[in-house]
Amino acid sequence: MHAPTPLASVVRPQTGWLGIVLAFVMVKQLAWLAAVPLWQSPDEPAHFHYVQYLAETDRLPRFDRSRSTNVSSPEAAYTERQAHLNDAAFHADQRPVTGTSAMGPGEERLAQSPPLDRMNDGNSTAAPYPPAYYALAAGVYRFFGDEDILTRVFAVRALSTVFVLVTVLLAWLLAGELWPQPFIRAAFALIVGSQPMLSLMGVSVNNDAMLVAAASGLAWLLLRAWRVEPGFGSGALMGLCLGVAWLTKPQGMALAPFVPLVTAGFAWHSGRSPGSWLRVMAGAAAGTTLLVGPWLWHLQQAYGTSLPALGGLSPTPLTTLPKYLAEHVLQPGLSRTHTLWVEQYWGAFGWLDTRTYDLAYRIAEAFMWVGAFGAWRLARRGTAAQRAILAACLVLTAGFLAALYAAEYQVVRGTGIPMLQGRYLLPVVLPHVLLAFVGCLGLAGPQRRMIVAGWLAAGAVALQALGLLRVLERYYA
Known about the structure:
This protein has helices at about 5-35, 45-55, 75-80, 85-90, 105-110, 130-145, 150-175, 180-195, 195-200, 210-225, 230-250, 260-270, 275-305, 320-330, 335-345, 360-380, 385-415, 430-445, 450-475; strands at about 350, 355. It is mostly helical.
């Protein structure tokens, strides 16, 4: 008989690796927080507009297309002028207030912002968004309510870092469903936490990072359903994650079909009873309705419909599906596809005007292509568990991507303007990265798995360093 192993000797190595990864991600996020200048993140002024209005009035904004949008409060408008927002945004050759000297042009005036009116009219382009993120951000804003606007903006930015840390924790938990080794779990969590665009959105006044965290929670619960048969309670947790995602950003609605699809696939593959699947669906419906129901009622009262249509739509369709596919998806050489899902997804900073280095894109592409090849081999020769997990990851990633294109088609059909950005794929960063990670480890074999995981983590850190270096070069060199 062996003496029982003390619990602490089991827990400490596990939590030790997790602590190292979380500490690294926290330090890395603080570096990004310091490096990204004021308002130099996608749509940041519009999102702060919403946060400030909610915090100052305790009312949700109401979007009105007949009035001017994004008219900032006097104090926010002052900082936008001093930060040269309109000169620097979308113009990679123009600098904001920073400079090579200790105090760049406009920085002194920015640091000494006079006390100005904080009120705006609430009519920003972010106003139609659901309120989950903005309610939390308004709480942070109020906590620092006596401070100057720079302190309030950067405090709200730091909230997004919390959601990045939650996403990293969920990546660690998800990896634990597949590998017992804490080092491999840490490597996967580090790769997820080092995704450069997630790093940028994790220091922005923006609802993206919260959506990623909620979607990652849903992905973990769905993929966990392969190993642990879910019931009503697990389904309710899935519904709550889906509800939070839905209440954070409209893209969260696109996650809804994957709850029945993935759980039904696992139930069929494992020979579980239809009754158990129905209990999961009942729980998911209850969890989602609990959160989303009041918001849909509010939309009905405010706009007269639970799903307000886009404004400015053409009365006749401006494109057809074949034309849309030819012009916006299957372009010669798939140029837009590469721009969206390689360049913008892996590193387009500022207002998407600052591409990272070509070396970074090569590292990311190598990881994805090698991982895809390894996943294809595992799908043919791997175990039933490996095939099921890979299939679920592929369904989540490809399905969400298809939903994004379907939404864009409707927008182009009504307005003629494409709206996709690479960062919109971040909600499925966990299954997307897991697909490649599992494939790469599958090529390595059991003996070299730890070594390959270490090299993949090192590549993610290099990708992260290149992204941060590019931001520093863009704004400070």
